[in-house]
Amino acid sequence: MKVLNKQSIAIILVIICFLVNLISSCPNYPEPIKLDQNDPTLQKAYKEVDSIIQKGMKDNGIKSFIASIVYRDEIVWSKTYGNVNPLDENSPPLTIDNAIRIASITKTFTDLMMFQLRDKGTIDSLDDEISKYFPEFSIGNPYNTKKSPTFRELSSHQSGLPREVPCDFDDLADEKICSEEVIVERLSKMFLIMPSYQTTHYSNLGIALLGRTLAKAANTEYEKYVKEKILFPLGMLNSSYYYDDVKDYLAQGTYLLSNGSYAIAPVEELGWGNPMGNLYSTARDMSNYMMFWLNNENSNILDSTTVNEAMSPISLVNDGDTVYGTPFEMFYDQTNNMWVKSKAGQLLGYRTQMALIKPLKIGMLFSSLYAFETPDVFTKAAAEILIPVYEQLLYEAGSQPQSLVPDFNLQPDISKSTEKEPKKIPDEAFVGTYTNSEGSVFIVDNSTGVLIANFGDDNLFNVSRFSDQYPEILRIKVSNPEDYACWYVVDGSNYELVYFTIESTSYGGIECNSVTAMGQTMSLTSKDPHYLKNNNIFLEKRNKLISKFLQ
């Protein structure tokens, strides 16, 4: 028997990996629809989440904790543990209306402000250098570039700026000691620690600088802008950047002394650094905030396409499945094949995390009134329980798999519409085999009762109408994407518009004599969608052209 050498084994392993990837399909997810929250399966899942939190509290010495879970547009589960003062059993029990310090989750509000101002045209581009709006700012750059940090770099921790604002943390709130002038003067004598986009380097300074630059561009105060343009429109009326506004309902954080006892954490505000982490909020307010990100429906806050942009990845971390966005921190749940968009925050006395499972429109806000060391605040363990339960119940309730893109229906532009009713084109008019001299093929078939298309191969596309105003334009969309390799669904001819040329026949009908698909114009060769099966001459010509192209 022939023994394989190491090189042969390696080649075989590569082939196996390729085949596995080739036959792997893109995961799809059920469309989130209304569910009965009293369903025993869901109630059991929430009890398991409750058990995870209680065990985590016990294991980490947490005395008070607040948790809220949202689904679609409502809070579906919440629970509080302990008291407003965790060290006083006689203080009121916690509620989801007690304020907490969300710390670095504040950064998501600063980035949201950035996207708003970009969409309004207040700033021209996320790739603008901030010196355009904040000319006083400067920092030494010893690298081979003359470019200063941009909005995009600051918002996604790609700027190479130092981590912290150059002021003692205890002095940040003192405007006499840590005024903007003092901070800018100190930065002018410092240097970038690395070139931009070399690696993700988390920078509180970067987000603080981002917020203050945005405020200059908008000619307003940062805190005032966020309050008026983000917090109030989202119904976050109990959220503020100022301790005096929330002190009457603030849940008190704790920290551990060297002797092993607990103490109430002092409240140290951040002054010029407010954009990086000084927002106070409540679990109820933050639930409204999570629902905004999950549903893409409040266009008064942010255009739905910009919401998608804000939740997109920017930089892959070396572990291969953790990604930084602007400024969401994302991880891929390998068990459930789903990205979780998250942001955590920590200040003395508080450790809070917001986690969004956008495909299922599930959000979690977990907050510990004790800043314990942890990669996450129990959200990963909770997600592993909630995701499969929600998927199961959604499919049982008749939810259909989500499309990888929405089913767009173009709204007619009334200003361009004519008085005449648009022509109605029957499905039969599109049916046929379309070809050109270059060997391109497009086939439309309705033998199953619905329109199906292909490009002369085995990859099938569902066909749907684009708009009543443009009846000659059809949309093609990958049929049963789970049947195709993920790379094809993403990179192939997956979601396209095809343009038919139509003409009236002498007997009053309508026929299509050509189509433009994937940039190629093809003429109607036969009304028979199976024409090519009986035309070996054309197939041979096409195969030769394809072979020549591949060479």
From TrEMBL:
Q: What InterPro entries does this protein map onto?
A: Beta-lactam-related (IPR001466), Beta-lactam/transpept-like (IPR012338), Beta-lactamase-like_AB/R (IPR051478)
Question: Which parts of the sequence belong to the Beta-lactamase-related domain?
Answer: 49-366
Q: Which domain of life is it from?
A: Eukaryota
- Which one Pfam family would you cite for this protein? Beta-lactamase
| Signal peptide stretch | 1-25
Check the record and name the PROSITE patterns matching this protein.
PROKAR_LIPOPROTEIN
Ordered alphabetically, the record's keywords are:
Signal
What Gene3D superfamilies does the database record attribute to this sequence?
DD-peptidase/beta-lactamase superfamily (3.40.710.10)
Keyword Metal-binding assigned to the entry: answer is no
What is the name attached to this protein's record?
A: Beta-lactamase-related domain-containing protein
Q: Which organism is it from?
A: Dictyostelium firmibasis
